[in-house]
């Protein structure tokens, strides 16, 4: 669950007084999410999400995240809009934490997406990339290739507890990724964590994107690689080529993929697998079992990494050459 900080009714009432949204009617902790404390807040003026930023989010990054959501919403992307208080500020303080109020997004996330939903995710991701083009602030990706080795070293000898031989496998893959990571592909603002729990659907139609707290500037198709990993594998670990094709087509329908971007997809997918395997491995080792945070399985991304390592071309992701002629 993700309510790390308890807040009292008095504290929330005092915070809300600055917003001109009338009286507080109710507030309730939201169990989902892992990074921050989130509350569903009802006031006379409407229903909102109250977020308290916890220690894993760097305060210096908050203007980027909040500014990005304001920018994307103004460009027409369906995402939470930060609400400004009577001083014109979206960021305040509550219970000693930076805190902000966001518009409530209708919809639900799906555990078992269809190919049609994978298409919509590709389409929405490309839309976000185009809408992010004019965003003025910059935030380098703190979890890109240069960060992986230190993260791995921080896991230490307990890595072997996850699987025998895992350290050698990671070291060999890291060496490959560090030596071959592309440096000439188009960059821009990426979401960097567009997993199933961060995309809402209403009656099968994508209704919005949430959780921009890993957003940063990086290779645009790296974001697509993250989504192929998060959306196109089945529960048994098999890659679903129909969903892969749908996602690539959905993306390409909004932002045309170049030959260079398509050719780079296999290594970008390997990199995305390494990134999520390592952050999960780090948490697996460092977060105590007694903690109420649900730890995610690093092995899921080890299996995905192994799949991507035997991919020979983008055809294995469902790519067809017609994509280039659209
Ligand atoms: N604007 C929003 N509208 C509706 N629900 C939201 C909104 N923002 C967050 N939530 C709910 O809160 C949960 C956790 O939010 P998320 O941003 O993913 O947290 P974290 O950053 O801690 O992972 C989401 O799964 C969703 O249920
Ligand atoms: N998507 C990451 C973990 C981050 O979780 P979120 O709740 O902030 O989306 C993973 O699956 O490892």
From TrEMBL:
GO molecular function: ATP binding; homoserine kinase activity
Any coiled-coil regions, as ranges: none
Gene Ontology BP term (one): threonine biosynthetic process
Annotated EC: 2.7.1.39
Catalytic activity, reaction form: L-homoserine + ATP = O-phospho-L-homoserine + ADP + H(+)
Key words, A-Z: Amino-acid biosynthesis, ATP-binding, Kinase, Nucleotide-binding, Threonine biosynthesis, Transferase
Listed pathway(s): Amino-acid biosynthesis; L-threonine biosynthesis; L-threonine from L-aspartate: step 4/5
InterPro entries in the cross-refs: Aminoglycoside_PTrfase (IPR002575), Homoserine_kinase_II (IPR005280), Kinase-like_dom_sf (IPR011009), Pseudomonas-type_ThrB (IPR050249)
Domain annotation Aminoglycoside phosphotransferase: ranges: 27-255
Pfam families registered for this protein in UniProt: APH
PANTHER family: AMINOGLYCOSIDE PHOSPHOTRANSFERASE DOMAIN-CONTAINING PROTEIN, AMINOGLYCOSIDE PHOSPHOTRANSFERASE DOMAIN-CONTAINING PROTEIN-RELATED
Family of this protein: Belongs to the pseudomonas-type ThrB family.
Name of the protein: Homoserine kinase
